[in-house]
Write a structure and sequence with these properties.
Tetracycline Repressor, domain 2; disordered N terminus; 356 residues; single chain; mainly alpha
Length: 356
């Protein structure tokens, strides 16, 4: 994920980054890195040297993207659980499979993105030392590795009920087309939202809820999916601000550039849409007060704080809110859904009504 790009012809791949004479004047930051520095700490740093480019390719050292892909899956699983009368063990098992799938498919998506952008990444400060861009991995090796990831993702998908296969396969088309969308529109985040939010549909069939024969579940899934699309556009708009100077210099389009002077207004609108659609999903699913207070309320508060606090001209601050806003908003929604599931599983609402 990075700022959207205008249609630029690919040059033959080289093991070296473009020379300064070929490159448009990008950032003037005096702190810009001039050479690649291998990871010095963390899990990736402990890997054999030959493995590090592959770990960097799938962003193993930056798990925020995996969390963003996983959260819609757990949202839909917990929202569908009362409809399916799912047990806690069923929910845990399904959630574990979804997390494994999110880890694999997020990595595959990053690799596909880097293959498409291999001649563009060297122009952007934040991406110029990615493995393919700096020549640590050839496109052929990256492509083979990506194929193995997609096969692993298919293996995970096959662990779900058969109907999940038919719901899951269309998402592969979105995974491969997102990098293309960045070349033709200022709003590739909409395509990214359609891609990253797919899990908001998958939790229902994963627990045996047939969306095509259950009108209420279809409404709930559609509203939840749309809510997650709005969330994706929101957080990726903040992410795009990290590249805004390089995007201008390189002639790259982005949603951050398109709305540079009214970003917070757009973010506020997206947050309102996200929370409204989340509430709509709860109504369709027959959720109770805990959902609306805990899930919708926490989302509204966390999004409001993030939009208020984020400093869009500060790269580090944008990154902090992108990384931690995921856990604040996604975690709050998840906790609200967990308590809603417990309330329904223990007949808390019925007991309250009987007391009156």
């Amino acid at each position: 994920m990075k700022g959207t790009t205008s249609l630029i012809s690919y040059r033959p791949h080289s093991s070296q980054s473009p020379s300064s004479t070929d490159r448009p004047a990008a950032t003037t930051d005096n702190n810009a890195a001039t050479h690649y520095v291998p990871p010095q700490r963390g899990f990736v740093a402990s890997l054999p040297e030959s493995w590090i480019p592959y770990a960097e390719l799938i962003r193993l050292d930056k798990p925020a993207g995996t969390y963003y892909l996983f959260f819609p899956c757990i949202f839909s699983t917990l929202l569908a659980a009362p409809m399916a009368s799912a047990t806690p063990m069923q929910i845990l098992g399904t959630t574990g499979l979804f997390f494994t799938g999110a880890l694999i498919m997020r990595g595959a998506g990053c690799a596909i993105n880097d293959l498409w952008d291999r001649n563009l990444d060297p122009y952007v400060e934040r991406t110029k030392f990615r493995p393919i861009a700096r020549g640590a991995l050839s496109p052929k090796k990256a492509l083979i590795f990506t194929g193995s990831q997609l096969l692993a993702g298919l293996a995970v998908l096959l662990q779900f009920p058969t109907q999940c296969l038919w719901y899951g396969i269309p998402s592969l088309l979105l995974v491969t087309t997102y990098p293309l969308a960045k070349r033709v529109t200022y709003y590739p985040q909409a395509v990214l939202g359609l891609t990253f939010s797919w899990g908001a549909i998958m939790g229902f069939p994963a627990l045996g809820v047939d969306l095509l024969s259950n009108h209420a579940s279809l409404e709930a899934a559609a509203a939840l999916y749309s809510s997650c699309v709005a969330w994706t556009v929101l957080y990726d708009m903040i992410y795009a601000h990290m590249d805004i100077r390089d995007d201008v210099a390189a002639g790259i389009k982005s949603i951050a550039l398109r709305h540079e002077h009214n970003t917070k207004t757009v973010l506020s609108g997206l947050a309102a849409v996200q929370v409204a659609l989340l509430a709509t999903a709860g109504v369709a699913a027959g959720a109770g007060p805990i959902f609306f207070v805990g899930t919708c309320g926490s989302a509204a508060v966390s999004l409001g704080i993030m939009i208020w606090k984020v400093q869009l001209k500060n790269v580090k601050n944008c990154w902090w809110w992108f990384k931690n806003g995921c856990l604040l908003t996604g975690g709050g929604i998840t906790l609200g859904l967990v308590f809603e599931y417990i309330a329904q599983a223990t007949d808390l609402y019925k007991s309250g009504n009987d007391g009156h």
